[in-house]
Structure formats: C-alpha cells, structure tokens
Amino acid sequence: MLAIDPAAHLARVRETSPLVHNITNHVAMNSMANVLLAIGASPAMVHAREEAAEFTALAGALTINIGTLSPHWVDAMEASALAAGETGRPWVLDPVAVGATRYRRETGARLLALSPDVIRGNASEIIALAGQAGGGRGVDSTDPAEAALDAARRLARQTDGVVAVTGEVDLVTDGRRVARLRGGHPLMPRVTTLGCALTGVVAAFLAGADDPFEATVAALACYAVAGELAGELANGPGSFAVAFLDALFHLEGEALTERARLEVDDAP
C-alpha cells in the first residue's frame, strides 16, 4: 500500500494557482470555470484553432473534452495537444461519449495517439476508447468502473500515462499501481457537467506535480470529499450545486485527512 496526501496536493494548487487551458464543451464552460476558481486554480477557455496551441504554451496544464465536437475545435484540440507535448505541459483527455458515433471514435483515436498524460472518463467511455465493445447511453455510463479496469490498464501502458475511471467507486491506474476511491454523493450525477469540471481539477493538480498518478488520485479524493460535504447540506440538485462550490472553496487539510477514503495497491 502507498500513502498519498491529498491535502498536500491541494495546498500546492492553492499556492501556485495554475492557469488551466480548457478546450471543453459548450455545456461545461461555466461550471468548469467556477469549480476551478473554487479549488484555487485559474481557468481559461480558448478554442479558436488560430490561437489555441499558442495559448497552451502559456498555461500550466491543458484539458481537452470532446463533448461538443466541430471540425475547427478538433483542429484546435490536436494542435494544442501537440503544443503541450512540445512544451512539456501536462494534458488531460476527457473522451465524452467517445463510443457513440464514428466521428467521436475517430477523434478519440487521433487524440489518444498524442499521448495524454491523463485520461478521465466513465467506465463505458474508457472501454470504448480502448477499442472494446461496451455500454453507454450518450454521455452516461452503463458499465461499473471495475469493469473498465483492464481497459484502463491497457490505455495507461499505451500512453505511458494515467487513466481515471469515475463512478460510484473511482479507479485510477498508471498501468501498474491501482487506486480505488470512495465518497461523493448520489446527487453529483444530477448536476450537469460536474464530471467535465473534475477533468479541469485533475489538470490543475497535474500542473507542477512530480507524480501524475498521485496528483490524479489527490484530485479525485478532494472532489469526493467535497461531494460528501455538499450532500450534508443540499435538498436537491440546485442547492447541491451551490453547496458543492462552497465545499470546494472551504476544503481544508483536516477534512481531507479525516474523510478521504482511498486505497492504493502497488502491484505488477
């Protein structure tokens, strides 16, 4: 078993306030920006193919979310991913509904070939991205996270990166180590784009991190604890969304230490 301290990673994010460049979908922009601000990072949404790659070099990390694709955005995504590789900026791929259409499968494969540092998706998305037949209903997963573990390991080894499978129990692997995280709240899937916003939080934790696996686990742990805290106050999805932002903003080391429920296996 390995020890990971989410509080230390959160403190680093708040001290450095990394600029996170997000090429994300139309639906997610506002909530993603608010979540990143609440956690202590600095969000930017730059999508034009004429400037996206140049902006990536100015940022601490990049996220690419394929939720609302268009040809110009795909061009910007590929150029930005290439720029991230050339400048040493970590980047996170969010393969939203990647198995739903041929265009999404092709775009996912092209981005996967550019070796994202982290892939974050639900189980059905991870299974589809790995080229396996899986479930999925639009952006929703019909597979449990554990069902995607083998696919996640293969993707992690293929990209020499990290794969995070989010669900009732989150899984994170770098192809060797596997972390399982419990927490969150049943209302989280009832608030649109909270998963997309988590991709931005992962990127913020990656910026300047020594170990992408540990940084990803820490980001997911913070999100899960904030979800639990928000759920104690919320009466429904609307109040949960507000309480969740407040919980992220007020999240501190002691609460993380007491509430984070994660197990990490260091196994072949």
Automatic annotation (TrEMBL):
Keyword Transferase: yes
Alphabetized GO MF terms: hydroxyethylthiazole kinase activity
Pathway it works in: Cofactor biosynthesis; thiamine diphosphate biosynthesis; 4-methyl-5-(2-phosphoethyl)-thiazole from 5-(2-hydroxyethyl)-4-methylthiazole: step 1/1
Binding site for substrate: M45
Enzymatic reactions: 5-(2-hydroxyethyl)-4-methylthiazole + ATP = 4-methyl-5-(2-phosphooxyethyl)-thiazole + ADP + H(+)
Gene3D superfamilies: 3.40.1190.20
Keyword Methyltransferase: no
Keywords: ATP-binding, Kinase, Magnesium, Metal-binding, Nucleotide-binding, Thiamine biosynthesis, Transferase
One Pfam family this sequence matches: HK
Cofactor(s) it depends on: Mg(2+)
Residues involved in ATP binding: R120, T166
Enzyme Commission number(s) of this protein: 2.7.1.50
InterPro entries per record: Hyethyz_kinase (IPR000417), Ribokinase-like (IPR029056)
Function comment: Catalyzes the phosphorylation of the hydroxyl group of 4-methyl-5-beta-hydroxyethylthiazole (THZ).
Family statement: Belongs to the Thz kinase family.
Protein name per the record: Hydroxyethylthiazole kinase
Gene that this polypeptide is encoded by: thiM
